Amino acid sequence: MGLLISSVAHNQFVAGQIAIIVTFLPAFILSGFIFDIQSMPAAIRLVTHIVAARYYVSILQTVFLAGDVWPVILWNSLALALMATFFLGVTLLRSHKRLD
Fold first, then answer.
1. What is the band of 39 on the pLDDT scale with cuts at 50, 70, 90?
2. In degrees rounded to 5, what are phi and psi of residue 50?
3. How far is residue 75's CA from residue 45's CA, in Å, rounded to a whole number?
4. DSSP label at 78?
5. DSSP code of 66?
6. At a CB cut-off of 8 Å and minimum separation 6, what does 18 contact?
7. What are phi and psi of 9, to 5 degrees?
8. Cα torsion 13, 19, 21, 22: sign
């Protein structure tokens, strides 16, 4: 996601602002680290599925609290790999080779 943001933004300040708005704030609120996802309204729970930090926090909670529960780790890792593949694909389509 960072590569996509940097390929879209025209300078470093704009890239930083976009990164804070698009990644940090949703990850902070919707990842399940501070607020339990199961206690959120159904519409918000659906939105949490597009936040990558949700899957990462789930892996961390599993490893630190329950040990190595491989079905949880593998499904969340698969979701993160799919998101990474999607964002890298969009970045490749979006970025153009140029000499500036």
1. very high
2. -100, 5
3. 18
4. H
5. I
6. 5, 8, 9
7. -75, 150
8. positive
